[in-house]
Write a structure and sequence with these properties.
Number of strands of chain A: 11
Number of helices of chain A: 9
Shape of chain A: globular
Oligomer: homodimer
Strand content of chain A: 15-25%
Radius of gyration of chain A: 19 Å
Distance between the termini of chain A: 53 Å
Structural class of chain A: alpha+beta
Order of helices and strands of chain A: HHEEEEEEHEEHHHEHHEEH
DNA sequence: CGAGCCGTTGATAGTCATCAAAATGAGTGG
DNA sequence: CCACTCATTTTGATGACTATCAACGGCTCG
């Protein structure tokens, strides 16, 4: 196979990392109906108060989901990369009280949620992939919550950078140089800070020798150090088991005994 | 039906709110294997570094999932009520990098994730219910993230109280009086504050006449006011469509045009 | 070339964390 | 039933981290 030229093939490729697709699975997926749209930065993809079930496949560019309070304060809840299938939760289960918006310009393919639901019903492998994606969404969301709730500004921004480097690289090691697809204000909205403070925090990370580069071009000068102050552990991203020799097993919290299958620490 | 006496019947009842179970669905669900355990407050239910896929059905008492940083700082990511099925993400898709822990004493039924996976495969309705539950988990998680990232201490605590009141009540209106099943330190861990500050915040809410009662007994004195400062909107909890006459449609953000099915604001 | 977004810098004020210790309350064992 | 212990709640004093307000330079773009 390879190179059917379908616009949604990148989406398929990413999903295939999450389950073992058969040729039939692949074919059926590529048969999905969709509409491709070019979108500029800032375009709203879907809104919290809208019921229309629609899934968005991000072909090029970057997008996010966010929640906006009456005060105007915004919390970005997830960031999406080219190849991502966005709004699974909202599309497949009903509105999700989140807004979807492009961070940069790019293009998307709109897929009717009903079609995707059908496909996932007929193709258990597709279903499994979607389920796992949804799991990753949740996992990432809770990691972000810990980020926003329990880390200081430096660690928050460092963590975001680590995550981006890792996700941009796919399954390999983290990229050392890349372009952050967000303005400092958007970084602020993702980390629960203000744009001004993000600016100063980036400067501190630079002065500390952890990153280099100006503007949105980020070069990671000291991955170890950056990951350390961020306490970054890529497990939550659910990437395949490539670089699995993690630095786990260390100083977790040894409050309870050893772990094993059968919950022997339950009473 | 009604009153088979099975310990996991409360779980079933809650799931039935999320999809239309047939009698066969119900029966098969109740046939699931499980082991019941009494657990004391603080008992660890599952750990982030553990692979054993196991789902926990919370029969009595309250539980939470949390993430702990090396510094010892803890972020509680979700709170679970009697009748909840916990760790769907971790159990069905692999470890979730989250710890599960009892907030109070209580009892749980352990269900092998594989069994649940099987059931959900054979019973699309069960699957739908589980999918919707997972959606609610995500939805709640992102609401909490907005809470922790973008609201001040008063609003955060008020929001937590509103959510608890609403969830305790099931589908009706919010309870006016109930017992918070968490210590102030746990509230702090859920809201990204410190225990000391939670204490002072609760006092402010009392002085403001929004809540009454001492200790964990909470009486909501002014639901309107409390929900207002918290910007609480129960939609994200995915409760059935009872009190749907929301206070929506008001001052959202009118940045983009009208919404309708076909994404006409895309370009 | 003006408009506007974005990044940067400075000065100041608040919110919330931290540290320490006393007060309250529940559970235990003699 | 009471002394005792331990967890939890409460209070006070201090300081750090981050927000807020304001202004300016650089850059892109129509």
């Amino acid at each position: 196979m390879g190179g059917t030229g379908s616009p949604i093939e990148p989406i398929l490729l990413k999903l295939e990392n999450l389950a073992e697709f058969s040729d039939a699975d692949r074919e059926d997926f590529l048969k999905l109906d969709y509409v491709v749209r070019r979108v500029s930065a800032g375009t709203t993809l879907f809104r919290e108060d809208e019921k229309s079930p629609q899934c968005v496949a991000l072909l090029t560019g970057f997008a996010c989901r966010h929640r906006t309070l009456k005060s105007g304060a915004r919390q970005i809840v997830s960031v999406h990369f080219p190849g991502d299938l966005i709004n699974l939760q909202g599309g497949l289960a009903g509105s999700c009280a989140l807004n979807g918006q492009m961070l940069t310009s790019g293009s998307v393919a709109l897929i009717a949620a009903a079609d995707l639901r059908c496909l996932s019903f007929e193709r258990p492998v597709v279903q499994k992939a979607i389920w796992r994606q949804s799991w990753i969404d949740f996992s990432t969301c809770s990691e972000w919550m810990a980020n926003v709730g329990r880390r200081d500004a430096c660690a928050r921004v460092a963590h975001l950078i680590c995550e981006f480097a890792t996700r941009l690289q796919g399954n390999g090691r983290a990229k050392m140089t890349f372009e952050l697809p967000m303005t400092q204000e958007q970084i602020a909205d993702a980390t629960g800070l203000t744009a001004v403070h993000v600016n100063r925090t980036l400067q501190r990370l630079r002065r500390a020798g952890l990153i280099r580069g100006s503007g949105r071009a980020i070069e990671i000068a000291d991955w170890q150090g950056l990951a350390a102050i961020a306490e970054f552990d890529r497990t939550y991203l659910g990437l395949s088991a490539h670089g699995r020799a993690h630095e786990r097993e260390r100083g977790r919290n040894p409050r309870v005994g050893v772990q094993n299958q059968n919950n022997q620490y339950l009473n």
